[in-house]
Design goal:
two-stranded antiparallel ribbon; alpha/beta; 14 helices; five-stranded parallel beta sheet; Rossmann fold
């Protein structure tokens, strides 16, 4: 069964992935980035090699929805617990759901203030704030990933709702709380994870892994080993700041985000 580590892009997914991977594989002699491989990304090319007519996906990107669950069924043939990272939205396209209860046991959803997300997206994709803002609010945002497969992300709002409205066991992790109180927030994640994979929740081990996966350490690891998901940018692990948007976004840009996502931002405490 699959436990999803899900988020809209640039919300802290890779940081949480690093923490969990290095906690489960604690002191195994591998680097932080090597341990990231424990949690693979979905979709990636190896999970969809069985599709015979890949050209159809280029003609109609919505066709990818037909293959989501069959790909997960293949992954679950071994009947093993698996954690997968995804930026895909959790809803349905053409009545084809992203996942179902036969393949999913639960999910961890990481949420971040969209005013911060848009800045991080702009840096990561090397485009303007305006371009990142358009994709943030568009309900039809598709991305051709570095794995030559299609992710359907939709808008920040639809992505969030598509996951939190599902009835699977889940935990909502706010990036801001993980940033300001990493120990307690990560410990809550591990307690939740323990429902599906028996692990020892140890305070000293938590502190050690948090230090190992600090932004400074991750940035140093990236410089030393490189990071495939960086897509050629100068640094994947940038600043991870909370209120950077106050000094970067214009009043008009802030208004667009707050007007589009008002209800969700209020419920999450961002407004």
């Amino acid at each position: 069964m699959i436990l999803w580590l899900s988020s809209y892009p640039k919300s802290g997914n890779t940081w949480v992935r690093s923490l969990i991977s290095n906690y489960i594989n604690y002191k195994n002699g591998k680097s932080v980035f090597e341990n990231l491989k424990y949690i693979k990304r979905f979709p990636n090319q190896s999970q969809f090699d069985w599709i015979e007519d890949k050209e159809i996906l280029k003609k109609d990107k919505f066709e990818i929805s037909k293959y989501w669950i069959p790909a997960q069924e293949r992954l679950n043939l071994k009947n093993e617990f698996t954690i997968l990272k995804t930026h895909n939205f959790g809803g349905s396209i053409k009545e084809k759901w992203f996942t179902n209860s036969d393949n999913t046991c639960g999910f961890i959803y990481i949420i971040r203030d969209p005013r911060s997300v848009v800045i991080s997206k702009s840096f990561h994709h090397d485009n303007s704030i305006e371009e990142s803002l358009k994709s943030l609010i568009s309900p039809n945002t598709f991305v051709d990933t570095e794995y030559d497969l299609i992710e359907f992300r939709s808008s920040w709002q639809i992505h969030y709702l598509s996951w939190v409205k599902r009835t699977y066991p889940n935990i909502l992790v706010k990036y801001e709380e993980l940033h300001s109180n990493t120990f307690d927030t990560f410990k809550k994640i591990l307690v939740f994870l323990n429902q599906f994979k028996k692990i020892e929740v140890n305070d000293d081990k938590i502190k050690d892994v948090i230090e190992l996966c600090s932004f400074d350490k991750l940035s140093a690891e990236e410089t030393k080993y490189g990071f495939k998901e960086n897509q050629g940018r100068e640094n994947f692990f940038r600043k991870g700041l909370i209120d950077e948007w106050k000094n970067v976004l214009t009043k008009d840009q802030i208004k667009i985000i707050e007007d589009n996502f008002k209800d969700e931002m209020v419920s999450l405490g961002y407004l």
